[in-house]
Amino acid sequence: MYHLMKGIYLYATSKEEFSVLLLGLDNAGKTTLLEQIKAAHATHGHPNLKTVPTVGQNVSTITRPDLYLKIWDVGGQHSLRGLWQKYYASCHAIVFVIDSTDIGDGDIMRLASSGAVRDEEFGRLNECQMVLEDVLQHEDTEGVPLLVLANKQDREDCVEVVRIKEGFVRKVFEGEKGGSVRDSRVLPCSALTGTGVQEAVEWLCSRVKWNKESRPPVMR
Ligand SMILES: Nc1nc2c(ncn2[C@@H]2O[C@H](COP(=O)(O)OP(=O)(O)OP(=O)(O)O)[C@@H](O)[C@H]2O)c(=O)[nH]1
Ligand SMILES: [Mg+2]
C-alpha cells in the first residue's frame, strides 16, 4: 500500500524536464541571460549582472507550471567551444546568443564578397557565422529547435533584429552548412535589462513540447 501511494504521489507531483543549452561567442551575454531567467522565476530575486567570463559551466533549473527547464550556460571562449558538443545529444533546445553590437552590419553576403575580413567593419561576424554553422552541422544537434537571440538591443550601436534575421540567420540556414530542418526563430532581447527574456522562455517551452517525440523529456 505504501509503495502504491508513494507511486501515485510521485506520479502526481512529477513534471517533465527539458534541457536548454546556451551557446554563442564569448561576451555575447549568455551568463547575463541565465541570471535574468533565474531572477524572473524566483520569488525574491535580483539578477546578478556582474558576470565574469565563464570557464566551465553554470546550470540552473527553473520551475514552470507544466515543466522544468534545466538551462546550461557554457563558456564561449574559443578554447572552450570544443566542450559544447558533449551537451548536444541530451539537450532539447539550443539558444544561440549574438552580441548585436559586434557583427558589423550583420550582412554575411557583403562579408563574403568583400574578400578580406576587415575586423573594424565586420566585427566578429565571420567568427559568429562559423561557430553557428558548426553547431548546425553537428549530427547530435539534428532537428533540435534553435532560438537565435539578437542580444544587447538596449545599446544604440546594435544591429536591429530584422537585419540579423535577413542578413545573417536566414542566409546561414539556406547555405550549404545550414544543417537539417528544424524549428527556429530569431528574437530581439537585452539580457541586461531583461527585455525580451520572457518571450524567449515562452518560445523555448512551446518548442521543446512540440519536439518531444523526437527528444523525450526526463521525468522529475
Ligand atoms: N548593454 C548590454 N550589455 C550586455 C547585455 N548582455 C550582456 N552584456 C554585457 O556583456 C558582457 C558579457 O556578458 P556575459 O553574460 O558574461 O557573456 P557570456 O556570453 O556569458 O561570455 P562567456 O562566459 O565568456 O562565454 C558583460 O559585461 C555584460 O554586462 C545586454 O543585453 N546589453
Ligand atoms: Mg558566461
List keywords for this structure.
single chain; 220 residues; alpha/beta; seven-stranded mixed β-sheet; globular; binds guanosine-5'-triphosphate; binds magnesium ion; magnesium; nucleotide-binding; metal ion binding; Small_GTPase_ARF
Secondary structure layout plus pairing:
Layout: H1 2-13, E1 16-23, H2 30-40, E2 57-63, E3 67-74, H3 85-88, E4 93-99, H4 108-113, H5 119-122, H6 125-137, E5 146-151, H7 161-174, E6 184-188, H8 197-210, E7 218-219
Parallel strand pairs: 1-3, 1-4, 4-5, 5-6
Antiparallel strand pairs: 1-7, 2-3
Class from secondary-structure proportions: alpha/beta
The geometry reads as globular
Bound molecules: guanosine-5'-triphosphate, magnesium ion
Series of secondary-structure elements, N-terminal to C-terminal: HEHEEHEHHHEHEHE
What would you note in describing this structure?
With 220 residues, the protein is an alpha/beta fold. 35% of the residues lie in helices and 20% in strands. It is built from eight helices and seven strands. Strands 1, 2, 3, 4, 5, 6 and 7 form a seven-stranded mixed beta sheet that branches. β2 and β3 form a beta hairpin. The longest helix has 14 residues. The radius of gyration is 18 Å and the shape is globular. The two termini are 22 Å apart. The mean pLDDT is 94. The structure holds guanosine-5'-triphosphate and magnesium ion (MG). The site of guanosine-5'-triphosphate has 22 residues, from α2. Guanosine-5'-triphosphate binds next to α2.
Structure summarized in a few sentences:
Helix content is 35%, strand content 20%. It has 8 helices and 7 strands; from the N terminus they run αβαββαβαααβαβαβ. It has helices spanning 2-13, 30-40, 85-88, 108-113, 119-122, 125-137, 161-174, 197-210, and strands at 16-23, 57-63, 67-74, 93-99, 146-151, 184-188, 218-219.
